[in-house]
Amino acid sequence: MTPPEAGKMEQRDALTATVLEAMGVSMHFSVNGVRKGVLDDVTFSVGQGECTCIVGQSGCGKTTLLNILAGFIAPTAGLVRVRGRRITKPGPDRCVVFQEDTLFPWLTVSENVAFGLTGKKGLTETIEERVNHFLALVGLLDFRHYLPRDISGGMKQRVELARVLVLDPHILLMDEPFASLDYRTRREMQDLLIALAQELSQTIIFVTHDVDEAISIADKIEIMAINPGTITEELHIGQERPRRVTEASYGVYRDRIYRALWS
Amino acid sequence: MKGTNTGKGDKKGLVHGILPWIIPAAFVCAWFVISRAGILPPYLLPDPVTVIGTAHIYIFAEPGSAPYAGRFLQDASTSLLRVFLGFSIAVAVGLPLGILSGRVAEINRLFSTFINGLRAVPGITWLPIAMVWLGIGMRTTVFLVALAAFFPIYLNAMAGARQINPLLLRAGAMMGTGRIRGSYAVLLPGAMPHIMTGLRLGLGISWAYLVLGELTGVPDGLGAVIMDARMIGRVDIIIMGMILIAIVGKMSDALLVAFLRLSFKSARRMP
Which member of A24, A216, B57, B253 lies 3.0 to 4.6 Å from B61 by CB, making a disulfide possible if both were Cys? Predict the structure, then answer.
């Protein structure tokens, strides 16, 4: 192989390896003529199969950032690229799991999971097969005919997860998805998420204010400061999975994050 | 234990089944007592048996064998057609306009002043001008029904579209739902409880305005029969007509609900 060709190959690899890039993303608005910044020059990138956690205290603009990445709102400056293409509106390549229950209450569990598949091209199996496969992955196959109002909060979040994983998105955006669940259910959901992400090599951006949650699931943590919201530090978590809160390294990571958050 | 439980359930079911009929039955009893005891004379309040006899003739007797004999089918179908046409026009205009007004602020601003101004004009004041423009009969009646049914349908569709959880719309959008599919797969089902209320109110008021339109001297229809009977002093026919409108109106409401439940998951699975 000649050197120029090798260079091209490397370049292409680098392009496919980066799934999402945020460049100088800023969000400002004026209150009584005073310019106020919610987000200021947020820049980071996420690689294929990586789980990136954005950690910051309440009000630092995490949710605003996620809404920009999803394409729900446009930033006042900067841009976001997914697989090299600039995003301008929401789309099934960037699926979102919300904190609140956003299942369609008039559809059963399996109809909710099938919702995004209707009209999707290039499926190798029937919609029903695919839906059942993903319902089995989140452990809800037996509940597929239930309506959302008849299942628990934890089960609803499993359905939320299934209905976006089934679309095979380039990236999964999660906005404190487990914040309203009790401790035990939250741990179960974290384990399930990690297992599924590894099995499907799913790229994830996970927003949370819970430092322990971030350490237990992240490959990489972006620490966000407040007023204006901007990323002050990037932390790679090299720890093997499954991780335990009792491990010594946990405390080291935790100290570093807390220092960055409240220095 | 199980037996007593089932027994309790049956009892509960029985009470549940009887409950809606207690007040109508009491009403008929009071009517019977008042008319039979002579508290009111028959030319003001004929007794229930007379009215039932009249209804029997009106519904089942050979046409021409007596005044009003066997006219029911003809009158009821004419009235139903008028209600159906007027109500359909109100739905076709009110539903899309209401949903659009609930979602798009500019459209709401464009229409709301005019529509709410129009709404302040009592429906009955449209009668004279409608008769001048459209003559007596089908067209005036359909016009009045459509006009009256429009407002509750429009207002409730607007409220339904406005109150929908914006996160549901975002969820639809992030799963790749475009404007068109979003409208019927997210917006319409999300607004369904309000839409259903609007449609039922609209259909109810349709019957009121049907009778108004038919009171103006049309030869057929349930409203026309009532007005006709007043001219010749047949109170039994008036009362019979009122009861028949109540029954047909209630049935049309049940039919509307059944139709919506059959056609839309969101109506069938309403909490």
Answer: B57
Q: Which residues of A touch B175 (CB under 8 A)?
A: 92, 95, 115-116, 163-164, 167
Residue A169: closest CA among A70, A22, A236 = A70
Tell me the average pLDDT across A34-59.
89
Among B163, B167, B174, most A C-beta atoms within 10 A, so best to mutate, is: B174
Contacts of A164 in chain B (CB under 8 A): 174-175
pLDDT value at position B8?
56
Mean pLDDT of chain B: 90
**Helix pair B192-214, B222-231: axis angle to 10 deg:** 30
Between positions 174 and 193 of B, the ones with CB within 8 A of A are: 174-177, 181, 185-186, 189-190, 192
Question: Which A positions 143-182 lie with beta carbon below 8 A of chain B?
Answer: 147, 149, 163-164, 167
Per-residue burial over A95-110, b if 16 or more Cβ lie within 10 Å, else e, is bbbbbebbbbbbbbbb
- What pLDDT, on the 0 to 100 scale, is given for residue A79? 92
Chain A neighbors of B167, CB-CB under 8 A = 98, 100, 102
Q: Looking at residues A98-126, what average pLDDT do you find?
A: 89
Strand partners, B39: none
Structure-model confidence comparison of residues A82 and B271, the more confident one: A82
Of B170, B189, B271, the CB nearest to A72: B170
Buried b / exposed e over B93-126, threshold 16 CB at 10 Å, is ebbebbbbbbbeeeebeebeeebeeeeeeebeeb
In chain A, which residue's Cα lies nearest the Cα of B172? A116
Residues from chain A contacting residue B165 (CB–CB below 8 Å) = 102
Cβ contact, residue pair B177, A70, below 8 Å: no
Q: Which of A154-158, A196-200, B12-16 is the least confident region?
A: B12-16
Residue A155 neighbours by CB distance under 10 Å: 18
From B268, which residue of chain A is nearest by alpha-carbon distance?
A106
Residue B178 pLDDT > 90, yes or no? no
Q: Which of A113, A136, A116 is nearest to A199 (CA)?
A: A136
- What is the pLDDT at residue A12? 43
Give the contacts of A166 (CB within 8 A, at least 6 positions apart): A113, A114, A116, A117, A130, A131, A134
User: What pLDDT, on the 0 to 100 scale, is given for residue B56?
Assistant: 93
CB B48 within 8 A of CB B28: yes
Which residues contact residue B100 at a Cβ distance below 8 angstroms, ignoring those fewer than 6 apart? B107, B161
Residue B9: the pLDDT is: 61
Q: At what angle do helices B72-103 and B222-231 cross, to 10 degrees?
A: 130
ω into residue A228 within 30 of 0, thus cis?
A: yes
The fraction of chain B above a pLDDT of 90, given in percent, is 69
Closest A-chain CA to B167? A102
Task: Tell me what percent of the residues of chain A surpass a pLDDT of 70.
Answer: 93
Better pLDDT: A13 or B194: B194
